[in-house]
Amino acid sequence: MNESQAHIIDTVIMSNLDEWRPVIAMLVFNLISAVMTALVKMALQQGINTLVLITLRQLVATAFLAPIAYFKERSTRPKFTLEIFVYHFFSALFGAALPQYNTFYGLKFTTATFAITFANLAPVLTFLIAIVLRVESLNMKSKAGASKILGTLMSIAGVMLLSLYKDVTVTHPANGADALLSSSGHHHRTTTASSQGNIESKNWMLGTVALLANCLCFSFWLLLQTRLTKKYPALYSSTAIMFFVSILQAGALTVTTERHASVWIVTRKLEIVTILYSGIMASGVGYVIMTWCVEKRGPVFTAAFIPIIQMMKKDASSVAVCCPSSPINEKEVDEEADTDI
Q: Which residue segment(s) compose the domain that 59 sits in?
């Protein structure tokens, strides 16, 4: 084999690796997100304040990314203009502050499995918005175009079924309303159980609306990143700035709504681990991965990997439950298993 043939082989191998890198990157992101979802659900069950969790997570992410951005991109970082600041403001709003609040709010009233399953709507919304904004093309006469339309309709139908289905295995009444109804014929107990069931149903719908808002925010953020990465091609700096702005956004809302300083005190081991992991891995590493994939393959490609989190979450939850320091007892494990679809 001469040098020319060896060079051709090396070129082909590197080309194939370049094609697979975004795929591998998104699989890593999905694993990170699955673990984060399981940790956040447990931290919320322990009573950590949602806005405090978001603000501290962004603070950790900024502290993690800022030194990397400074040293790695100090000679290549573009000029920071007012236009770039506006882009970063909305990137922080749609990519960090709002979606995280909606996700955690949705997790509080639903389950981790439901939240991740509902996130399957994100690729559909991203695809539809991308078509409207002409970021993505669609030929309805081709087989590929027809498959996209069919897949979109099936995804929407599945999410609607998941949201409106009222069976106990999905809605997970925490207070045992059905058990009260079946084990007692007393009128006052029946009334109490009915009231509890109504509250559970209302909370479930509120959680569903929050998760839908999260999907919309995520879709808009992915599409916004396609422009931001072209106008400000500094991956680490852009992500660090986004999280710094989101600290101000989430922090302002937290100070406005939570007047007691005690909500900022985090002492439980699980809460500290959740903040550090979600800040460093889910935000710091995860958002860099997503932004890079959007730049390389586009928003629709990036969103298409979200459904894989559902499979990875099963293993992440199992590891969390098996951990000796996990706050989930055997009864809660059984209840969580009942909510899986």
A: 25-119+209-334
